[in-house]
Design goal:
Radius of gyration: 27 Å
Helix content: 10-25%
Number of domains: 2
Shape: elongated
CATH superfamily of the largest domain: Uncharacterised protein YcnI-like PF07987, DUF1775
Order of helices and strands: HEEEEEEEEEEEEHEEEEEEEEEEE
CATH class of the largest domain: Mainly Beta
Strand content: over 45%
Mean pLDDT: 82
Bound molecules: copper (II) ion
Distance between the termini: 81 Å
Low-confidence stretches: 1-26, 178-202
Largest sheet: 11 strands, mixed
Oligomer: single chain
CATH architecture of the largest domain: Sandwich
């Protein structure tokens, strides 16, 4: 009994020591949530855990990286706010508006955050046009009267800040479940682009490849500012063996994804089907608005009613099938 009690105490002390060590290592300026999903609007919450060598923090300046756009700071009682605007390197789409300038630096000024206290500083912004796996660095200048702490060290490979004395806070950009989509655009399509499900008037072209019959292909005209286009068709499998639509390409788009719409918590969302769509023996599979569809990404020229869009479908067994989709109205009629 006595031995085990001593052991218990030693263990507790060791745990306490290691917890202290972790707290010490974490006493940098960091984001509360260090991951952000591509093409989403987030609240980037910066944590300031201490002052500068015991002195109170009086100003926090945050430089915003390219790809973190339409930024707005949250005002804080006791602090003045300054938003410095500048040019983005790229042009961003904000609900159909082309945006080239915006906040590039945020400053909370003339505050007083004691070294004994912890606080957070919040910036709302959208992560846009950033590849998954990229870490966005937000260099921070923490000022305590005339003492300055620069949290601006960035690892050369853009990755691990381990062992750095004053690393810049990093946001790691990750792919969403609905990779490549903007949730706002999806909501917009849900409201206006995809009503009248099944009301489409497809063309009568039928393409045969092995046991498969592909028919009723159409695409929808793209609304102004809409970054992605939808495509639809019907596949009938007259054979005895299952097949599978594996992938789709088109000269009209940088990428064509296979998607499905799913309703979860009353919100319609799109999901990429990376394994494609099974076309079982004897079955007919319909890609239609509000359900399975092709999603054209990086569209070179927005689809207009009356145009046609060439696609190449690749099936596991039937191989490649060329198809032309007629562009109908944005409503798919
Ligand atoms: Cu989609």
């Amino acid at each position: 009994m006595k031995i085990s009690k001593t052991f218990g105490k030693t263990f507790a002390l060791a745990a306490l020591l290691s917890a202290t060590a972790i707290a010490g290592a974490e006493a940098h300026v960091t984001f509360l949530d260090r991951e952000a999903t591509q093409e989403t609007t987030i609240l980037a919450t910066l944590q300031v855990p201490h002052g500068c060598d015991g002195k109170a923090t009086t100003e926090v300046r945050v430089k915003l990286p390219e790809g973190f756009v339409f930024a707005k700071p949250q005002p804080k009682a006791g602090w003045e706010l300054e938003v410095i605007k500048g040019d983005y390197q790229k042009t961003y789409d904000n609900h159909g508006d082309k945006v080239k300038t915006g906040a590039v630096e945020i400053r909370w000024k003339n505050g007083n955050l004691s070294d004994d206290f912890y606080d957070t500083f919040v910036i709302q912004g959208k992560v846009s046009g950033v590849e998954a796996g990229t870490s966005l660095a937000f260099p921070v200048t923490q000022m305590c009267g005339d003492t300055v702490e620069a949290w601006d060290q960035v690892a050369k490979d853009g990755g691990d800040a381990h062992g750095m004395k004053t690393p810049a806070p990093l946001l790691k950009v990750v792919a969403g479940e609905d990779h490549g989509h903007d949730h706002d655009d999806m909501a917009g399509m849900n409201m206006s682009g995809m009503p009248g499900m099944g009301a489409a008037a497809p063309t009568d072209e039928t393409v045969k490849a092995g046991d498969l019959e592909v028919s009723g292909g159409f695409a929808k005209a793209m609304l102004p500012g809409q970054p992605v286009g939808g495509g639809f068709f019907t596949v009938k499998n007259n054979g005895q063996t299952d097949d599978r639509l594996l992938s789709v390409t088109s000269p009209a788009a940088g990428e064509v994804q296979i998607h499905e719409m799913v309703t979860k918590d009353n919100v319609m969302r799109m999901r990429q089907l990376k394994d494609g769509i099974a076309i079982a023996a004897g079955q007919t599979v319909k890609l239609e608005p509000g359900n399975l569809h092709l999603m054209f990404q990086k569209v070179k020229t927005p689809f207009k009613q009356g145009d046609s869009v060439a696609v190449t479908l690749t099936f596991e067994k039937a191989g490649k099938v060329d198809l032309v989709l007629q562009v109908l109205s944005a409503q798919g009629k």
